[in-house]
Methionine synthase reductase (Sylvia atricapilla), 699 residues
Amino acid sequence: MCCESKGRFLLLYATQKGQAKAIAEEIWQQAGAHGFEADMHCLSEMDKYNLETEKDPVVIVISTTGTGEPPDTARKFVKKIQDKTLPPDHFAHLQYGLLGLGDSEYMFFCNGGRTVDRRLQELGAQHFYDTGLADDCVGLELVVDPWIDGLWLALKEALQLQKEKEGMNSAVDAVSSSISTAPHAVHELQLSSEIHNLKLEDEGARSSDVLSQKLDDINLVAPSRDTEPSLVHSVPPVSQSALNIPALPPEYIEVEFQDSQGENPHLSSHISEGTTFEVPVTKAVQLTREDAIKTALLLELDIADTSFEYQPGDAFCVVCPNNPSEVEELLHILGLSEKGDDVVCVKVKQGTKKKGASRPQHIPERSTIKFILTWCLEIRAIPKKAFLRALVECTSDVGEKRRLQELCSRQGASDYTSFIRDSNVCLLDLLHAFPSCKPSLSLLIEHLPKLQARSYSVSSSNLYQPGRLHFVFNVVEFPAGSSRPVSWKGVCTGWLAELVAPLLHPSKNSLDTEGESSSAGKISIFPRPNNAFHLPADPSVPFIMVGPGTGISPFIGFLQHRQKLREQHTEWEFGETWLFFGCRHQDRDYLFKQLQCFLENGTLTHLKVCFSRDTSTAEVAPPKYVQDVLRLCAKEVARVLLKERGYFYICGDKKHMADDVSDAIVDILSMEMEADKLEAMKILATLREEKRYLQDVWS
C-alpha cells in the first residue's frame, strides 16, 4: 500500500519516565500494518503540530507524575489549553482518543490524562474513541493492549466519517480492507506451536492444525512432571497454544568500540533535570537498634557552599549508581568483562525503521561501557514485553526461546504478571534463568530505561541548621526468591549505607550524636520542590501531622522551623500543632526521641505515639496504629479541621497507612458532624481541593 492511500492521524505523547513514549511508539509501529500513517510527536514539540488547525484524528498517550500532575513534557501544552480566554468551541473541529497512564496506589489516579481530557471536552473537542485509563499498579498492559486493539477500527470509522463529510470516500478503501480481515489480531505475529523450529508464521496465519500439537512435542519443552508454571516453565493451555506475540521492535542504536580508553563525562552533564550539586556527607546516624526489623539512617549533607535552597516539606533527588557487583556480573554475561573500561561511541543506526530515532538523552555519545551500565541504565527495571520480544532473537535454546515468546504473548499475560511483574524480575534474573540469551549492549541501551535519581523528603530546616540538609531513609531489602537466589538492597539506599559506613555509630540513637568531622564522600543532588506540602503561610493556623516510621521525616523539618520562628518572633500568634507517630517497638525504632524536647518547649502542642508490635499488660490494650489513635482524638481532629480550618498532613506508606488514615478521617467527620459517609467523603474531597489535606506518600 502506498503512502498516499494511508489514513493519517496525529499521535502525541507526554512522558516522564518513558512509558508513554514507548506505548506511542508501539502504536506508531502497528499503524502501518493497519493501513494508517501516524504523525508522531511529543506534546512539548508544539512547533511541529497545531491542534487549532488539525483536521485528522488525534491520539494522545499521557502519563501522570508527582501528586497527579501532567508530566514535565506536557506542562506547556496544559498551560496553553487552560487559558481561560479560549472560547468553548475552540476545538470543536477536533476528534481525539486519549490513553492515560497512572497508578491507583496514588490518590489522583491518571490525573494527567484526566486533566487534558476534561479540558479538551470543555473546549468542544469530540471523542472518536473512548478514553482508556491504564493502571501501573496492576499492569498497564491490561488496559493498553485491548485499547490499542480497538483503536484501529475506531480510527477507520472516524476517517470514513471525515471523508464522507468531504465527499471523498475512496481514500479509506485500502484502510477498510486491511481492518476487516482480522480486526483484533492482524497487527500481531501469529506463532505456530511447532516446538521444533518455532517458525514465525506470516501475519494472520492461524491454520487449524496449530492447536493439534502432539503432547510428545510439547514435552520437549515442558516436562510433564512439572505441574506448576514458573518463570522458566509453562503448563497447558499456554504451553500448547498458538501465540499472539508483539511485532519485533526495530533496532535503532549502534555501538562502536573505540581503540583507546578515555575519560567519562561528568555526571551532571547527562542529568536533564537541571542544576546538580555535588555535596559532602558530613554525618550519619543509625536511628534504629540493631535488632529492629528495618534499618533507618539519618544523613547530613553540607550545602553551605552551594546555592541549593529548600523549604521544610520539600524533596530532593539523589543521583545514584547501580550496584558494582551487578554491573560486573552483567559485563561477564555479555562477554564484556575485559572491555568495561573501553570507550564506546553510541549513535543512531543507519537505515533504522524507527521513526524519529535518536540517541537517548541519558546516554552519552562517548563513554565507557561501565559508565553506561553504572550511571545511565536502570538495570533492575522490570522488562517490558517489547524487551522480551527482542530478547527472543538473542536466545539460542529452543525451550528458552519458546518460554520468552510465551511471556510476551497475549496468551502468557497472566504468567508475565505473576513471574515477571509481580516478582520484580530484572534483566539479570532473566539472563540467569535463560542462559542461552546473549543480548548486545545496543539492545540494552534501546530497551532499558534511564536510571532514575531517587527522591527523599528533607528532614530539616535551613532556618534551624543553616547550610545543612538532613534526610532519613530505611535501607530497603529485597529478599531472595525463586528467581533470585540472594537478597538485594535498594539501589540508592544500599549504596548510601555502604558510602556512610565509616561515619556510622550504631550504638548511638539520637539526633544529637556527634558525627565524625570528616566526610564519607560526596553525592550529587538536585532540588525537587513541593508546591503544596509546606507549613501554613499563616502561623496562627493549627495543623495535624501524621507520620509513622520514616514518614516522620518532613515533620522534623516542620518542627525545627516552627521552633526558630517562635524564638525569632515572640509577638506572633502560633496555632496548636499535633503529631501522630507510630512504629513497631518503642525501644527499637522510635526514630526521634527528641520529639519530647519539642513538646517541652511548646513547639509541639500534642504528641501521640503508638507501637504496633509491643505487648501490653494493660486492661485496655493501647492503640496499635496511627489511624486508631486518630479515632481516639476524633473531637479534637474534627475541631481543628472544621471549626479552625486547620491543615492535615500525611507522610509515609500509601498502601498500608495513608488509605487507612483517610478512612479514619471520613469516619471522624461522619461521626462528629452526624452526617452519612458520603457527605463526609465530600467534605474530605473539599479539604483536598483547598490544599488543607496534604499527602507525601509512596508505595
Q: What stands out?
A: The CA atoms of residues 372 and 541 lie 50 Å apart. The chain is about 30% helix and 20% strand. Confidence is low (pLDDT under 50) at residues 168-174, 180-224, 506-517.
